[in-house]
């Protein structure tokens, strides 16, 4: 490795990074930024005003706001897909990303300044990649999902060609033999969206940016997805795009990190004291991440399912979780009294700290990739309730490949929820998942040791950046 983030001439290198402005994408990008900085590189994070990170929480990183990169109308769009497309369109039209990069490149000409080696973009930010290409600046692409989803999103031509898609009522349970253990019902099916073309466009973004990049950075690790990573290496090698599996990103730079610095919302730490008073392994932690929404009916079933399960639980009911309700979410009448002393509800939790807490014995998750990896890292088995996009495939992997969780499918209904919670928290099947989760927890830690696969991948990544 070239020493301390310097190029062949000994001059220090700078890397610019541009995350997609959503929690599940900002966190891994900032974590990667921290890891690159720890290897001696200078790091600048470009960001939108919408969901801007707080520079005060990242003293070692430089931040540059790219004005108007996401117009108000796009920020207000409820649908994440519409936001991503609007953001790319606005970036291309305004030329502001190009201007921000040009000014970073000009600053790098100054005496003693680091040279700008590359731009690392979220895999959806095609417009930022085009801006960099126009200035002759290479890009690397950060994929914030699993290696399995990386492969899945590149397989849509095959899925259509072989007739898996568009899905029909009769083929939903059909296994996809080219992508085991996935079934047709685990696919994000663009034809089910009101606007099919938009769905297909969004799927193509990551493939397009990867093809046009100088490298793919994956938020996963060898111990979890060895087969998928091997296939990705084979697929990308002829294209000259090296992959780097550097996860779990939230522990890459420092195992002591508790995640508060990358959270966009204030985390309510009162739940930690509440957990302190609970028996080891007794609590079910429940959170559906930062963007997923449920209907009012589903919300009520979740509440009464938790109440009926008889288990202690910590439930994140974030603002905006329930469709049609923008402010603070009211809990169903009588719910507070029914779970008195057994349940705690917060608007946003210190999730990594919660999952690391000895009182937590299970995680009911929407199978967002960051949540899944955080749970795997702490050896906590899951109750998976994927809601859309790549969550569906991740839920299937959790249940069928890693066998670390119970998959909750079909209509959400309180009786089914109670049964699933009992299976995970009380029955032999759940105990076996807990044992497997403990085993994998050990393996994850070896990936993060100094000679482990993820640290070696970061070394290679830094060497690669310096060679660009
Ligand atoms: N998170 C948190 N507090 C909460 C719920 C979630 O800090 O109460 C964090 C969690 O640790 C994870 C991220 O929000 O890093 C959610 O990312 P994920 O990919 O799981 O789901 P998304 O929000 O993108 O759907």
Automatic annotation (TrEMBL):
One Pfam assignment: UDPGT
UniProt feature coiled coil, ranges: none
Entry-linked InterPro entries: UDP_glucos_trans
Gene Ontology MF terms in the entry: quercetin 3-O-glucosyltransferase activity; quercetin 7-O-glucosyltransferase activity
SUPFAM superfamilies named among the record's database cross-references: UDP-Glycosyltransferase/glycogen phosphorylase
Keywords: Glycosyltransferase, Transferase
UniProt cross-references to PANTHER family, sorted A to Z: GLUCOSYL/GLUCURONOSYL TRANSFERASES, UDP-GLYCOSYLTRANSFERASE 76C1
Family: Belongs to the UDP-glycosyltransferase family.
Name listed for the protein in its UniProt record: Cytokinin-N-glucosyltransferase 1
UniProt organism field: Panicum miliaceum
């Amino acid at each position: 490795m070239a020493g301390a983030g310097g190029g062949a001439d000994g001059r220090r290198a700078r890397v610019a990074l541009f995350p997609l402005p959503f929690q599940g994408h900002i966190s891994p990008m900032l974590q990667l930024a921290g890891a690159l900085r720890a290897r001696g590189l200078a790091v600048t994070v470009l960001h939108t005003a919408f969901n801007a990170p707080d520079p005060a929480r990242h003293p070692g990183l430089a931040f540059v706001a790219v004005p108007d990169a996401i117009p108000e109308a796009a920020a207000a769009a409820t649908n994440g897909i519409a936001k991503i497309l609007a953001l790319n369109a606005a970036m291309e039209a305004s030329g502001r990303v190009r201007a921000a990069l040009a000014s970073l490149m000009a600053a790098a000409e100054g005496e003693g300044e680091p040279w700008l080696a590359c731009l690392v973009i979220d895999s959806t930010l095609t417009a930022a990649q085009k801006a960099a290409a126009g200035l002759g600046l290479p890009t690397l692409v950060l994929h914030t999902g699993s290696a399995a989803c990386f492969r899945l999103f590149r397989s849509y031509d095959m899925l259509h060609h072989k007739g898996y898609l568009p899905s029909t009522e009769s083929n939903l349970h059909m296994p996809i033999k080219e992508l085991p253990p996935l079934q047709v019902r685990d696919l994000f099916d663009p034809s089910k969206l009101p606007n099919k073309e938009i769905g297909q466009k969004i799927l193509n973004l990551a493939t397009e940016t990867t093809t046009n990049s100088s490298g793919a950075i994956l938020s996963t690790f060898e111990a979890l997805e060895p087969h998928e990573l091997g296939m990705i290496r084979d697929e990308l090698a002829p294209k000259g795009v090296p992959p780097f599996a550097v996860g779990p990103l939230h522990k890459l730079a420092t195992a002591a990190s508790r995640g508060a610095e990358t959270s966009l919302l204030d985390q309510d730490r009162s739940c930690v004291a509440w957990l302190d008073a609970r028996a080891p392994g007794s609590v079910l932690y429940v959170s559906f991440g930062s963007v997923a929404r449920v209907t009012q009916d589903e919300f009520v079933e979740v509440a009464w399912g938790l109440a009926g399960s008889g288990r202690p639980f910590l439930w994140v009911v974030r603002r905006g979780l329930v469709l049609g309700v923008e402010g603070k979410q009211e809990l169903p009448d009588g719910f507070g009294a029914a779970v008195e002393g057994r349940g705690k509800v917060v608007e946003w939790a210190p999730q990594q700290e919660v999952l690391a807490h000895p009182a937590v014995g299970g995680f009911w998750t929407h199978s967002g990739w960051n949540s899944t990896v955080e749970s795997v890292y702490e050896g906590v088995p899951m109750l998976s309730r994927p809601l859309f996009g790549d969550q569906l495939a991740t839920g299937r992997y959790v249940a069928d490949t890693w066998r670390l969780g119970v998959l909750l499918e079909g209509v959400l209904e309180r009786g089914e929820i109670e049964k699933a919670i009992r299976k995970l928290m009380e029955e032999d099947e759940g105990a076996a998942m807990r044992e497997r989760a403990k085993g994998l927890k050990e393996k994850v830690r070896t990936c993060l040791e100094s000679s482990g696969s993820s640290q070696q991948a970061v070394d290679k990544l830094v060497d690669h950046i310096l060679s660009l």
